[in-house]
Specification:
about 260 residues; alpha/beta; Rossmann fold; 2 domains; 7-stranded parallel β-sheet; 8 helices; globular
Length: about 260
């Protein structure tokens, strides 16, 4: 019998769903047949938001909910979660993904940089989780998956304070597992370098972007960057019954980069 993940009848809430890894997550959940409520910073008439709606409809035949949300604003998150639960009569899965790179360095990082980073890359994940908690408990098999980063395990100069927030997400996954289980199962994912718009922007900071991309790819044993859909596949698997005994862990998916000693 072929391995099959069927999430039809399940509702997933995805933050940062309009682009990058979030768009890949939404696409694969749609393939699995889930109802999808997505939010992102762009307005509903933005190309990214419209692309999210179009892809979900193409993959699943179902119309998703899309709401413009700044996830650092608790009142906007609260409104989004309420609308998602109302639209689909509950919430079964939270894919907490929204975030962005904040690379300043420990000395050059301003207090405002620190606060923005912590609000976006750490606190917003806790806020959306606690807002979804009543619906996930009612589901009977609620799952939270928090998107962290390989920077939570190993980092490099100049990646502060982003790496601090992402390390904090590992502790958040552990605490939610211990305190909210067994009615809610929480896991984390720590992707390596993924081929997104943020990756392109990073490479564009170099005099020869293509040369820097090739140099970076050669640092990975798999000799390439990951794709948003590959991370989406991990999200779908971790929220499925096949991963029902997984909890409290943040799984590193980094193309083998962390296996290298030096």
């Amino acid at each position: 019998m072929p391995l099959n993940i069927d999430l039809s009848g399940k509702t997933v809430v995805i933050t940062g769903a309009s682009s990058g890894i979030g768009a890949g997550i939404a696409k694969v959940y749609a393939r699995a047949g889930a109802n999808i409520a997505g939010c992102a910073i762009e307005p509903t008439d933005h190309a990214n938001a419209q692309g999210f709606v179009r892809v979900v409809e193409e993959e699943s035949g179902k119309k998703p909910l899309y709401v413009q949300v700044d996830v650092t604003k608790v009142e906007q998150l609260e409104d989004f979660v309420h609308k998602a639960a109302e639209a689909f009569s509950g919430i079964d899965i939270l894919a907490s993904n929204a975030g962005t790179n904040v690379f300043r360095g420990a000395e050059s990082c301003s207090h405002d940089d620190w606060l923005f980073n912590m609000n976006l890359n750490l606190e917003s994940h806790w806020n959306v989780a606690r807002l979804c908690k009543p619906y996930l408990e009612k589901s009977g098999s609620g799952v939270i998956i928090i998107n962290s980063s390989a920077h939570s395990n190993n980092t490099m100069a100049g990646s502060f304070p982003y790496n601090v927030a992402k390390t904090g997400l590992k502790a958040l996954v552990q605490s939610l597992t211990i305190e909210w289980g067994p009615s809610i199962r929480t896991v984390g994912l720590a992707p390596g370098f993924i081929n997104t718009r943020l990756a392109e922007e990073y490479f564009d900071t170099f005099p020869d972007p293509q040369a820097e991309r090739l140099r970076t790819e050669q640092m990975y044993p798999l000799k390439r960057l990951g794709t948003p859909e590959e991370i989406g596949g991990w999200f779908v698997f971790l929220s499925s019954p096949y991963a029902a005994f997984a909890g409290g862990q943040t799984y590193v998916v980094d193309g083998g980069r962390s296996a290298i000693m030096m």
